[in-house]
Amino acid sequence: MSLIEVTGQDAAKLLQGQLTCNINDLSASQASITGFCNAKGRVISTLLVVKSPASFYLILPADLLDTVLKKLRMYVLRADAKLQDQTGSMHILGITGLTPEFDAPIDRFAVGQMPLTTIKLPDAPRHLVLGAPDQIDEFIGLLRSQYDFESGCLDEWRYQDISTALPWFDINQSEQHIPQMLGIDQLGGISFSKGCYTGQEIVARSHYLGKVKRALFIAECQPSASGLVNGCKVLDGISQQSMGCVLANAVWSGINRALVVLQIVDGLPKNLILDDDYRTPITIISDQ
C-alpha cells in the first residue's frame, strides 16, 4: 500500500467533490473506504480515507499511486489543497489478532490511538497502524518483546484482504467497474445524499434504478502453473460465455482465493471456469 496526504484549507472540499463517501462524516474516530471515479462512474482506485488533525490520509494500492496523484491534482486548480506522496515518511503496518488489552478500535473502519493511528478493517480481527518509520519500528519492538507476535508475509495479508472482500485492485482493473460492482456501497463507502462528485450521476442512477448488472464474489480455484492473472475472464463452463473477470487474487497455504466481478442479471451458472490455458474451474464460496 501507499499513502497520500492531502493538506490545506480546501482539502475536505476537494475530496468531497471527488470521492464517493461523505468526507464530512469522517472524524478522528471514524475512517471510510471510498471510490475515486472517472466521469463515467468507473472506479479509478479504491481508497481508505483517514482524517488527522491537520490533513487527510489516503491509503491505496501502490500500483495506483501515480495514477491517483495525477488525476486528483487535475482537480486542485486554485483550491488551497496539496497532495503529497508520504509513503516514505509514513509507514503502514498490518496487524492480525490484536487482543482486547490493546484497546484497539473494534467497529468497521473505526480509528483509535494505541498510541499510533489505528484503523479497524472489516469482518476480521485486523488493523492498519500508521506512523513514522521510527515509531513503527518501536511499536513492532514492543509487540515482540511483550507479546507473542510474529512477522507475516504480504501474500498472507492479501489473502486475508480478499477473504473479507476488501476490493483492492491493480492498475489493470482501474476504470473498469462502477463502485457498486465492487461492493463499496456494502462497506459504507458511498453517500447517496451528499451531492455532486465526479461520476456521481452514473453511480446514483445505478442505485436508484437498480441497474447494477454485476457484483463482487469471493471465489477459489486450484493454483495453476502459469499463475492467475488479475483481469482474467471468468466463463460459463457450458456456453463459454463471458460472465465477468478476476479483480484480485492471492495464494496462501496452497489455496488460490480471488475476488471476481460477475454478471448477476440471470443468475450465476453452476459451472464457472477461467479463460486460461487450463480452463481452470473456479468455485464461488461467498458473495461480498
Name a few traits of the molecule:
288 residues, alpha+beta, Gyrase A, domain 2, Elongation Factor Tu (Ef-tu), domain 3, 2 domains, six-stranded antiparallel barrel, five-stranded antiparallel beta sheet, 5 helices, globular
The CATH class label of the largest domain is Alpha Beta
Q: Main sheet, how many strands, which sense, barrel?
A: 6 strands, antiparallel, barrel
CA-atom Rg in angstroms: 19 Å
Going by CATH, the architecture of the largest domain would be 2-Layer Sandwich
Characterize the quaternary organization of these chains. Answer: single chain
| Ends apart, CA distance between termini | 22 Å
CATH homology group of the largest domain: Probable tRNA modification gtpase trme, domain 1
At the fold tier of CATH, the topology name of the largest domain is: Gyrase A, domain 2
* Structural domain count: 2
The total strand number stands at 15
Q: Largest beta sheet: what is the strand line-up?
A: 10-13-12-11-14-15
Overall pLDDT confidence:
93
Structural class: alpha+beta
Helix content: 10-25%
State the order of secondary-structure elements, H for helix, E for strand: EHEEEHEEEEEHHHEEEEEE
Q: Give the low-pLDDT segments.
A: none
Percentage of β-strand residues:
25-35%
Organism: Methylomonas fluvii
Domain GCVT N-terminal: 1-97
InterPro entries: GCVT_N (IPR006222), YgfZ/GCV_T_CS (IPR017703), YgfZ/GcvT (IPR045179)
Protein name: Folate-binding protein YgfZ
